[in-house]
Specification:
mainly alpha; lipoprotein; P-loop_NTPase; elongated; 65% helix; nucleotide-binding; GTPase activity
Length: 184
């Protein structure tokens, strides 16, 4: 019996030593880790700071992460134009060119049926025509009167580039708005 107990005690001591070593290593690693709590109102730039830190001080974004952000960029662009078009009605701004009304219908339909929220060429073309319309620009100039992403003009002015086949966001992901509901 004494032999069994001593073997168990030796194993227990070895296991305890391994656990202690792991705890020490974890403690040393955590000393080097910097934790940062960012607080602020919605759309005040908290996520942008985290993204910039990842680019500047971290490993940057992998191709898979950039592919995931491509969808966010496309959705932000579509949502921005939707907000502008809806605001035109509330602000009483009519299209100077009557054919833009048909473009709005086409825009809504194409955006709704777009696979994976992307920007296929036909949707991008309709969006570009709408964005270049004088009345849409007038409504955009009054964006302080309605809710609009800060990045709206950035993306809408870059429609050709962000709708291009094979587009991967680089600095564009700093402009995208992705609502965070939990710590990252």
């Amino acid at each position: 019996m004494g032999c069994v107990n001593s073997t168990n005690k030796k194993q227990a001591k070895m296991l305890s030593r391994e656990i202690d070593d792991q705890l020490r290593a974890d403690h040393e690693r955590s000393k080097a880790e910097v934790k940062l709590l960012l607080l602020g109102a919605g759309e005040s730039g908290k996520s942008t700071i985290v993204k910039q830190m990842k680019i500047i001080y971290g490993t940057g974004y992998s191709d898979n992460e950039r592919i995931a952000y491509r969808l966010v960029v496309h959705l932000n662009t579509i949502q921005s134009l939707v907000a502008i078009v809806k605001a035109m009605g509330r602000l009483g701004i009519e299209f100077a060119n009557p054919s833009r009304k048909a473009d709005v219908e086409s825009f809504y339909h194409l955006a709704e049926t777009s696979e994976d929220g992307g920007l296929p060429p036909d949707l991008a073309a309709v969006m570009k025509r709408l964005w270049e319309d004088v009345s849409v620009q007038e409504c955009f100039a009054r964006s302080r009167e309605y809710q609009l992403n800060d990045s709206a003009s950035y993306y809408l002015n870059s429609l050709d580039r962000i709708a291009a086949h094979g587009y991967l966001p680089t600095q564009d992901l700093l402009e995208c708005y992705k609502k965070l509901s939990q710590p990252t």
